[in-house]
Every structure is written in C-alpha cells, then in structure tokens.
Amino acid sequence: MTVSLKLYVPRDSGALAVGADDVVASLQAAALRRGINIDLVRNGTRGMCWLEPLVECETAEGRVAYGPVEPQHAESLLDHMLAAPGTTHPLYLGLTEEIPFFKRQTRLTFARCGIIDPLSLDDYKRLGGYDGLAKALTLTPAAIVEEVFQSGLRGRGGAGFPTGIKWRTVLQAEADRKYVVCNADEGDSGTFADRMIMEGDPFVVIEGMTISGIAVGATKGYIYIRSEYPQAIEIMRAAIEIARKTNYLGERIQGSEYSFDLDVRVGAGAYVCGEETSLLDSLEGKRGTVRAKPPLPAHKGLFGKPTVINNVISLASVPVIMAEGAAHYRDLGFGRSRGTMPIQLAGNIQHGGLFEIAFGITLGELVDAVGGGTATGRPVRAVQVGGPLGAYFPRELFDTPFDYEAFAARDGLIGHGGIVVFDESVDMMSQARFAMEFCAIESCGKCTPCRIGSTRGTEVIDRIRAGERAEQNLVLLEDLCQTLKLGSLCALGGFTPYPVLSALRHFPEDFGRDPVPVPVAAE
Amino acid sequence: MLPILHAIQAEFGHIPKPAITMIARALNLSRAEVHGVVTFYHDFREAPAGRHVLKLCRAEACQSMGSDHLAEHAMERLGTAWHGTTEDGKVTLEPIFCLGLCASAPSAMLDGTLVGRLTKARLDALIDQTEAA
Q1: Please, are residues A22 and A72 in contact by the beta-carbon 8 Å criterion?
Q2: Spatial separation of the C-alpha atoms in residues A77 and A254, rounded to whole Å
Q3: Rg (Cα) of chain A, in Å, rounded?
Q4: Shortest CB distance from A346 goes to which of B2, B41, B61?
Q5: Do B42 and A18 touch (CB under 8 A)?
Q6: Between B127 and A1, where is the model more confident?
C-alpha cells in the first residue's frame, strides 16, 4: 500500500510572500522521489504570520504544524511525519490548535480561516457555513435586522457604528433598487484581517452579504477590493463563481423568494476610497472624492439608491451571529464593544499575526504577552493603533482595554484593529511628519484643510527639525491640527491629527521639548 | 469606468491619450472627466513604466522594520527616485502604501509577486533578477 499524507500549505498572500509555493514544490518533489502520495490542500492562514510558511500534517490526534518552513526542509519534514511518535524536529510545533497564540483566541469570525480549503463549498458547509443563511431564510427581513442589532455588532472598518441601525435605515428606506456594498479597501498599515478572511474563507463574506441583501431588500452587491490584494481578488472571484453555480447567488437563492448577486470591483491605489462615500463615487466610475453627509449612504448611496456599506469583517461576522444567535455574540465583549475583534499584531513584533478575541484585553497583554515584544528584541517604545490615522501610544498607556470607548477616552482609536509596534529606534517626529505627508499624498482634495494643511504640516515639522523658531512652530502645528480636525469632511483630514498630536504629547523629547515627567506612584 | 481603465492598462501598460477620447465618447462623458479619473488614482499611468515595476512598501508597519533604509538602498542602486525608471528602462521604482503583509514586514512587490521579510540581501537579489531578465 502506498503511504499517503494529508498536508496543508497556505495560499494566503502572507505565506506566498515568504515562499510557500517553493515549499510546496519541494515537498511534492521529495514525495515523488519516495513514492509517497501527498494530498495537498492550499488552505488560508492560521494567522500566525511569524511561522509562515506553516506546513500542517493531518494525524490521528489532529493537525500538527511545522514552521517557518523553507524548501530545503522538505526531506527532513517528510522523515519526521513518517517517523514514530516521539521523534523530534527543530521546526515541529505539535498540534496546531495547542500553540498558545492560537489556543488563547476566541475565533468566531475566523472560525474556519486556515482550516478549510477556501474554495471548497463542502468544507465550508461541513464547518457550519451557510447555517446563518438557512436561519435567515426562516425569518422576516425585520427579524434579521433585529438579530444583528441585538448582537451589538459595530462597524469593524473603524467607525464602530452599530450595523443593525445601518441595516434598519436601509430596510425602512423606500426605493425601487437597493445595494449592499462590501468595503474591502483595507488600506490601513498594520491591518490585514479583510485580506485574510477573503483569502481564507471567502464564502463567509458572500454569505454575510447575501444575508444583508435579504434583510434590507437589496438584490445586487459589490465587493470593492483594493488592487494591492491580487490574491484576494482572485479567490473572491472564484468563490463567487462557485456560489453562482450552486445557487447560493443568483435568482431565488436555495429555492427561496430572494434573489441576490454580487460582483468584485477593483480599486486603483487610492487610500481615501476606503472612506465609504469616496468608495461609492469610485464604484460609480468617478474620482474617489468624499461626499458630504447627509444624505447618508443608507438613504442615498450607490447611484443615489439606499445602500448598506459595511466593512468585510462586519459582514463576515453576520453568518455566525445568525447561526448561533445574537446573545452568543453579545455575551462576549467589554462595555459597549460586544463580541470579538480580529486584532492584527504587526510591525516590529516577535509574534505577529491575526488574533481574534473578545473586546477588553489590554494593549499591554496584546503587545507583550501575546505578541512577545519586538522582533528586534529591543524595548517597545511606541505602538500605533488603528492605522495611519490612529494615535501613537507609549508604554504608560498599555493598561488601555481594547474597546472603542476606552481608546477614545485616551485620544486614540481602535480603527480596524491594527497594532503596529515600534522599538526604541523610532523617531516620533519622523512619524508625525509621515502622517502629514501621507495625508498630502492621499487627500482627495475636497476639503482645503486636508489638501493644503497636510503639506503645510510637513513644512512646519521640517522647520521644527531645523530648529527654526521651534516652539512657535510647535504651537502652529497644534493649531493646524485643530483646523484639520474640525474642517475636514472625512477621517483622512479629520484624524491625521491623531498620530501627529499623540506623538507630540507622549514623546515631546523627540520634538525638542522637555520629556513627560515620570508619574510618581501615589502613596 | 475603473474596470475599463484597468483593462486598458493591463493591455498597454498605461492609459494612452487616444484611449481617453474613446472612453469619453463611449460613456458620454467629457474628456476632462475621464482625464480627472485617470489622474486621481495612483495605479493609472499616463506613460509606460519600465520593463519591471518594483514596489516598496512605505507604510508604518514596514517603517518599524527598517523599510526606509531599504528604500534608500534601492534608490542608490537603481539611480532613481520614487516613480522613476532606470536609465536602461528596466526597472520603475514605486512606493506603495501597504500590501497587507504587515506581520512579515518589510514587504515589496516585484511585478505581480509579493515579497515579505525583505532584507538588503533579498532586495539586491530582486534587483539582480530584473537586470538579468
């Protein structure tokens, strides 16, 4: 009898970028030489990016992992997989689900990511896929909306607006046509949750959009994916084709009275198109310029019709909410932040990756205990939470719980859940300058403070660096930030002050001011 | 209009001037409107790029792992600034703001291929690759 092994090597961009395809080729060649059969699944990622390429092998006890694997390890890996239990291998990690980083998580939205073949509808359904839609089809649209509202789900794109209220507004709007738009223009540095779910479990996004369409009375949806994500675009498109062929999209879905279809649209490198109204203009084939609100997209969205526009993770969280019930989701969390958040640990961090957990875990636990500190081994100096428009936090604020309101109370934001770690080599004045420069590059140009103020901001910081009337220019910089904050329509101009002012406030010594006094413990 | 522009750029490597007139006529828009869209998006080029396009991520997660030094090195080796093309027309150097590989920073993209955990040595290897081809 031929020996047979079932192996998993991710096709996630994060794995491909560090050589997963080369590992696959060498594993196949090694197996061929030995006359071993390999059943190889190209799964999504488990989210432990520092271990990629992560190779998993199915055993009687469960899947065991090896990582990070390089092509030259193929022979020794096969030796170990075929050897008696108890033998060692330097890359052997034991059962994948017992790895502390993985075991500590509560995976609801990412329950299947990394486990299944992303394009196998059978795999998807075997692990609870389309249970949410089945439940939704037994309810009235208003009851679906109520369930989502009761779950406490808030927009995972960053704004944190209750998804149920958005859906209710669209449901109640009268129109001949409505749309569901999935915002997959994930441009924030330090974030990759949208990409991972699209590449690792695309059907959950389709299912979430379908449920949304049924709930609000929309028959057409669009997923707007940024062009920087070619792998996600390819996998989403393939999954949509499969869903169409199996009547999970199209006319009278699964024999119900509801029809819904969707298409992928590809962005073109404009960060601001992640802002919802700018994204709608871009979808309409225009410059991605921000619109004034009101009217809300829920009233006048795509092509002037009522539109649900939600982030990928918001929509991907809907199937599990429907399948398990609102209470199951709502019972997790902290304060007004209910459920779980896929947090992304990135930048200079030892254990970077995707970590889904109930709200409430502190920033310090995430960076030190989960993330293991910096990759360079130097002390952590600053972390930026929430993308390029998020605030920089020093270690003194590491007791902040991961929660929308707790971060806002400390002049920060959780945004889309990305945490970028910097070690002590970081120069915070450079980071502040970059925030202004980025705003200048990506501004859509509609609001003057954002369009012009960002450029003036970089110039003012350059003058401070040159020692030109530094203190007056620092005051000017703070004043300019106020103008940006109050005079911009969207978060690009409105939030660029967060990284700038937080850098100045928490790291004044990098701007030539006196350091923040170390607080003395109260007796 | 974006799907049309993506298709034209995939075919020609840039958006040629005559295409703007044709798109405007087909979509019943003014040439100015089409030009406005083409110039708004960073992806669309008005002139062809070099034979290879090397995109280096400039965003924060990559900065935290030293991407600025890699960018300086690339500019020095290629003898060009951002958006520039080498004299022999082989490589265009572009900044990119996030490839979603922030847990394997710094990252880059050479033509369609993603590269994570970029080091100076790997960057040199990528540039060598473009010179060989």
Answers
A1: no
A2: 44
A3: 24
A4: B61
A5: no
A6: B127
Segment A125-135, tens digit of pLDDT: 999 999 999 99
| Contact map slice: B 82-121 vs A, CB within 8 A | 96-105, 107, 109, 112, 114-117
Residue written as tokens 């924060």? B60
Q: Closest to B102 (Cβ–Cβ): which among A227, A288, A346?
A: A346
| Residues of chain A by 3-state class (helix, strand, coil), percent to 5 | 45, 15, 40
Give the number of other Cβ atoms within 10 Å of residue B39's Cβ: 12
What SS3 state is found at A321? helix
CATH dotted code for B52-132: 3.40.30.10
Domain boundary among A279, A296, A330: A330
Domain residue ranges in chain B: 2-40, 52-132
Share of chain A above pLDDT 90, in %: 96
A40 with A162, same domain: the answer is: no
Sign of CA dihedral A307, A311, A317, A319: positive
Q: Where are the beta strands (DSSP E) in A162-219?
A: 179-184
- Report the gap between the CA of A287 and the closest CA in chain B (Å): 5
Indicate the SS3 state at residue B5.
helix
Same domain, A301 and A206: yes
Contact across the interface for B102 and A191, Cβ inside 8 Å? yes
Residue B3 C-alpha, separation from nearest chain A C-alpha, in angstroms = 7
What is the SS3 assignment for B44? coil
Cβ(B13)–Cβ(B111) under 8 Å?
no
CATH code: domain of residue A366: 3.10.20.600
Q: What is the pLDDT of residues A195-226, one digit of tens each?
A: 999 999 999 999 999 999 999 999 999 999 99
Assess whether A264 and A154 both reside in one domain: yes
With left for phi above 0 and alpha for psi between -120 and 50, is residue A29 left, alpha or beta? alpha
Is A42 in the same domain as A156?
A: no
Nearest CA in chain A to B117: A18
What's the per-residue H, E or C state across A427-491?
Answer: CHHHHHHHHHHHHHHHCCCCCHHHHCHHHHHHHHHHHHHCCCCHHHHHHHHHHHHHHHHHHCCCH
Same structural domain, A69 and A81: yes
Q: What is the ipTM of this complex?
A: 0.97
The count of domains in chain A is: 4
Domain span holding position A213? 121-330
* pLDDT > 80? residue A518: no
Give me the torsion for CA of A445, A450, A455, A458, rounded to 10°: -150
Rg, C-alpha atoms of chain B: 17
Owner of token pair 């199996």: A246
pLDDT in the model for residue A520: 62
Q: Which residue has the tokens 């940006």?
A: A484
